[in-house]
Every structure is written in structure tokens, then in C-alpha cells.
Amino acid sequence: MKNSPIIVSAPGKVHLLGEHSVVYGKPAILAAVGLRVTVTVIPSAAEGVARNDGLDKIIEPIIKKHFKIKKIPSYQLSISSQIPIGSGLGSSAAVSAAYIAALLIFLKIQWDLNLVNNLAYEAEKVFHGNPSGGDNSTVVFGGLVWFRKETPDLKIIQPLPFTIPSKLSKNFLLINTGKPKEITAEIVGIVSSKVKNQKSKFEKLFIDQEKLVRELLPALSQSNEKELIRIIRKGEKNLEAMGVCSNYVKGIIRKIENAGGAAKICGAGGKTKATGVLLCYHQDKNKLESIAKSFNLPFFSAALGVAGLKTGWQI
Ligand code: MEV
């Protein structure tokens, strides 16, 4: 048993609404999405960490600093992921959370989800500069999450007491527009300078996003499709007004809207062309699939509101 592999997985996330405004203290609703990253840590006699893409250089210092540890014994690391990287589905949060939990188990440190979440937030700061903490909280706790950053140190992470009713959940489709040219930190930075220069415009946008996020709660729990479509459309328009959606992707979204559906970016977005994955809704999912095909874009269905961090001890 001494060298048994330690296996931890975490899901991706989508913002049902509230991305960007969540960085400025407004609430967001996120869903853990049914695509997972699995991290395996195998204790090893050989020096070093095999196969890590430099991730150990980000994660190990966070653990060493927090627990005042000088050296982490050697291990092998393997990561397999179903989550497209850098596409708004929280891949960095998921891999950080799973890796952190696997290392804590490896180091025989007592842990719980709050601890992993706090440490994953530190990793998100390295990746994204000024993250809200919504992505890591959702991939760790799973389900549907109401998230609000009150202060840098105080966050409301409230699991929603319902799942998305199947009448609605069966009609979501994810369309992948590709990896944005700009990374999340860049887009968040661009919004931040706009917030400074166009204060009143952004205050209005953020207030409207909060209103829509609040209206989304009953729309989801009561299966109100008409409301859901209205809220996604309006929320997407506000994101576009923030300048985080390229003209190319606006074109795709308008096609979906004209066909009777709704679609939105579900992470930081992108300015040049690709904006990552789009969260799309239509009563007739075939319509969404034909639009994705007409743009030559991959699409897939994934469950929304899945379990968060999970551990397993055998391969
Ligand atoms: C990124 O997935 C979502 C943003 O709101 C940034 C954040 O919340 O940290 C754009």
C-alpha cells in the first residue's frame, strides 16, 4: 500500500451569469460542469516530479508556505483532463484544486474542502492576477453555487438548494469557439482599466447584472424558460457592453437568438476572435447543433451542477 496512487478529480465550471461583475463584489451563479480533470500523485523513490508542465512550481510553493514545509518528498504526477484549457470552463481552478488535495493526502496533512478551496484561490491568483474566487469555489464544492466576494478575505459561497430542472437542463449545449488569444488575466485587466475610465457606465452594467443574477434564481428553480432566455440574452448584451466578446462570436450568438435561443460566454471571454466555450440554450437543441455546424465549431452536452472535488484510491 506504501506507493498506492493518490487520485483526485475536480469538475470544470460555467458561469450561468455574473462573470466579470463578480470581480467587483456583485453576485454570480455558477454550475460545476460534467467534465473532469483527474490528478494522480504516486509516491516515488526517484528525485523530482515527473510530468508536470511546471504546475508543481506554482502549487508546491503555496503548500510549503501555508504549512511552513521546507521540502516535499518526491512523487510522480499525472494529469488527465476532459476540460478544454483556457476556454472559460475553469480548467486552471480544477487542476489546482485536484493537485492540491492530492498533495495534502500525499503529505498526510488533515484537510477539508475549505482548506483546498483557500489554497486553490492562492493558485488562481498566480494564474489570473485578481480572481474573484468563484471558479475555485465551484469546482471544489460542486453543484450550483451562489458566489459573492464581499472583501478579498470574505466570500459568500452558498450552494443552491435545487438542481436545474430537467425541462431546462436537457436544452443546454456548449459550443466551443476555441481558445481565446487573450488569457483571463488580460481580459480582467482590460475590464479593470475600463471600470476606472468609464465609472458610471460600468456601475450601471454591474447593477443590471446583479439584478439579472437575482432574477435567474427563480427562473431556474421554477423552470421558467421564457425568463431564462430573456436573462441570458440581456446578461450577454451587458457582457458585450463590457467589451469581452469579439465581433465574430457576437455573430454566432445573434444567429442563436434569431433562431429563438440564447447564448453567452461563460468565463472571461475574448476580444479578438475565439471566446472559449459558449453556454447555449434552445427549446430545440438541434437548432443549436446546426448553428454550431454552420460555423464549423465543436459542440457537446454536459451535465450542469455535478459533484465537486472527489477522491479515489485505486486506478
Ligand atoms: C473567469 O472564469 C470569470 C471572471 O469573472 C474572473 C473571476 O471571476 O475571477 C472573468
Automatic annotation (TrEMBL):
Alphabetical list of InterPro entries matching this protein: GalKase_N, GHMP_kinase_C_sf, GHMP_kinase_N_dom, GHMP_knse_ATP-bd_CS, Mev_gal_kin, Ribosomal_Su5_D2-typ_SF, Ribsml_uS5_D2-typ_fold_subgr
Q: Which SUPFAM superfamilies match?
A: GHMP Kinase, C-terminal domain, Ribosomal protein S5 domain 2-like
Specify the signal sequence span: none
Location(s), subcellular: Cytoplasm
Q: Which GO terms describe its cellular component?
A: cytosol
Q: Which GO terms describe its biological process?
A: isopentenyl diphosphate biosynthetic process, mevalonate pathway
Q: In which pathway does it act?
A: Isoprenoid biosynthesis; isopentenyl diphosphate biosynthesis via mevalonate pathway; isopentenyl diphosphate from (R)-mevalonate: step 1/3
Q: Which family does it belong to?
A: Belongs to the GHMP kinase family. Mevalonate kinase subfamily.
Q: What is this protein called?
A: mevalonate kinase
